[in-house]
Every structure is written in structure tokens, then in C-alpha cells.
């Protein structure tokens, strides 16, 4: 591990210890999270409707709140997009993750609050790096560049002050500026809307950078990798980015793509780490 990565890794030590204890107290952690959410939202329209303040147990919660379809909560979400506060959450929510689903609409729009950005999505990403560094003490993670491939976002047709788009775009737009010091390409490129133009621009701006980590959906990233190889005339990605060491992937199963990645990245030092970061929240990650 290089000096820079070794130094920054110290910031992850405490969290690594916490994660190591999670398996010993799962029930308490889950209940603590539930009660925190109920307490925060107890005075919202939804919280008053179901009397959140009187819920004393997980059993109470299950009995009090019926299972909901997106169509049933859509009117509430629409009001939130239009700028109303204290609907499902106390604050005005400006960001909405576009999620495909099996509802009557082509897409559903899920509120992404500042609290879930910081306390769930970004914390999940932090945990992912923490576990990776714990498991790979030889890593040079922070001394090189990380390529994150994401989607795009746009103003909502209902309210131009609210934005909607792929979760990846919401996360990239709101990233801590310090992360951008090691991330490529620049934000205007990674958030481009038109796919083919985006891929071309990413290739032109990253093929000659010292990239050592990739993050994204396996199918999308495979398209980018092939475009990089076409641009450079190389057969293997390790010929372009010799220090490449890890691919953080999620969104779809990696198995149908694993052999293609092994072929294009023939390195026994390459690591693959699966994450489960959905529009609804960061639910899990690989810990080995």
C-alpha cells in the first residue's frame, strides 16, 4: 500500500471495526434504524395518518402500515415534487431517483432526501471502500483515478426546482467535492444524457489517465471497456490501465458478464466487488 492510500485508510479504521460487529447485533441495529425513521417522520402527513408516534415495536409497525403499491403513494410523491413539505418526509425534497418497475407508469420516482444520501447511499459507498481496503492491504486505491460510469438527470416536468434521473446521476451530482479529486471524467461529461456521445467523451477523456478502479453497472461498463480498447487498439484493458485493481459493480447480476471481464482484464490482481445500491437505498455489499 502506497503512503497516500495508507494515510487515508486510517479514516476507515473505526468503520471497519463497526462493520465487524454488525453480525453480532443485527436485530438491535435494524430496530434502531426503524425507530429513527419513525421519529423523524412522525409529524408528516403520512406519519400522522398512521400515528407513528404510538408505534412501539416492529410488530406494531407491520400491523399499522399496510403494504403499499407505488400507485397508492404516487399522489403523495407528486405533491413532494411540487415542493410541499411534511408529506412523506419533513423537508422539501429536491431529488428523485427514477426507477423502472411493474407499475402502470413506465417509471416511478422515489424521493432521495439529504438524509438518505448521507446516511445510506454515501455511507454504503464508504463502507464498500472500507471493506475493500481491509481485504486488500496492498491496494493503491487513492493514488490513482477512479472511473465512475453513471446515468443522467434533468429537471422534473412538474417543477423545475426538482430533479429526477438515474440514482447514479443523483449520487454523482451531489458527491463530496473531495471525491472528485480522484474521480474521472469531469462531472459535465459523466452526466451527459445522450449515451453514444457520453461514451465517446468518456473514452477521449480517460483512456490516457492512470485508472485503477471502475464503478458501475456491468453491462454499461462493458460497452465502455470495448470502446476504450477500440480507441487504443489494445486487446486487453490492462494494456491501457496497467494499475487497474478493482471493479465495484451492481444493478444487475455479474455472472453473465464474468467471463467477458476475465478475458478483457487478464490479471490475477483484479478484484470484483458486488454492491446492492438501489433507488430505495443501499442494502448490501460483498464483504469477502
TrEMBL record:
<dbReference type="GO" id="GO:0016881">
    <property type="term" value="F:acid-amino acid ligase activity"/>
</dbReference>
<dbReference type="InterPro" id="IPR004993">
    <property type="entry name" value="GH3"/>
</dbReference>
<protein>
    <submittedName>
        <fullName>GH3 auxin-responsive promoter family protein</fullName>
    </submittedName>
</protein>
<dbReference type="GO" id="GO:0005737">
    <property type="term" value="C:cytoplasm"/>
</dbReference>
<dbReference type="Pfam" id="PF03321">
    <property type="entry name" value="GH3"/>
</dbReference>
Amino acid at each position: 500500500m502506497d503512503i497516500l492510500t495508507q494515510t487515508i485508510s486510517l479514516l476507515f479504521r473505526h468503520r471497519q471495526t463497526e462493520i465487524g460487529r454488525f453480525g453480532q447485533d443485527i436485530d438491535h441495529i435494524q430496530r434502531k434504524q426503524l425507530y429513527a425513521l419513525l421519529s423523524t417522520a412522525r409529524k408528516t402527513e403520512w406519519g400522522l395518518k398512521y400515528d407513528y408516534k404510538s408505534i412501539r415495536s416492529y410488530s406494531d409497525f407491520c400491523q399499522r402500515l399496510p403494504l403499499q403499491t407505488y400507485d397508492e403513494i404516487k399522489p403523495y410523491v407528486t405533491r413532494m415534487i411540487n415542493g410541499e413539505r411534511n408529506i412523506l418526509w419533513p423537508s422539501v425534497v429536491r431529488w428523485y431517483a427514477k426507477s423502472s418497475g411493474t407499475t402502470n407508469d413506465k417509471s416511478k420516482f422515489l424521493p432521495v432526501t439529504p438524509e438518505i444520501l448521507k446516511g445510506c447511499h454515501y455511507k454504503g459507498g464508504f463502507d464498500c471502500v472500507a471493506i475493500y481496503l481491509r481485504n486488500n492491504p496492498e491496494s493503491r486505491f487513492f493514488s490513482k483515478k477512479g472511473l465512475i460510469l453513471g446515468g443522467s438527470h434533468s429537471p422534473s416536468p412538474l417543477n423545475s426546482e426538482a430533479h429526477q434521473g438515474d440514482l447514479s446521476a443523483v449520487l454523482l451530482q451531489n458527491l463530496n467535492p473531495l471525491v472528485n479529486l480522484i474521480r474521472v471524467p469531469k462531472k459535465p461529461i459523466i452526466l451527459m444524457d445522450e449515451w453514444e456521445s457520453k461514451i465517446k467523451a468518456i473514452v477521449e477523456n480517460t483512456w490516457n489517465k492512470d485508472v485503477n478502479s471502475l464503478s458501475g453497472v456491468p453491462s454499461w461498463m462493458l460497452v465502455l471497456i470495448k470502446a476504450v480498447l477500440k480507441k487504443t487498439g489494445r486487446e486487453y484493458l490492462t494494456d491501457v490501465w496497467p494499475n487497474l485493481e478493482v471493479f465495484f459493480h451492481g444493478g444487475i447480476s455479474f455472472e453473465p458478464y464474468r467471463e467477458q471481464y476475465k478475458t478483457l482484464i487478464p490479471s490475477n490482481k483484479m478484484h470484483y466487488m458486488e454492491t446492492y445500491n438501489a433507488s430505495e437505498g443501499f442494502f448490501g455489499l460483498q464483504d469477502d
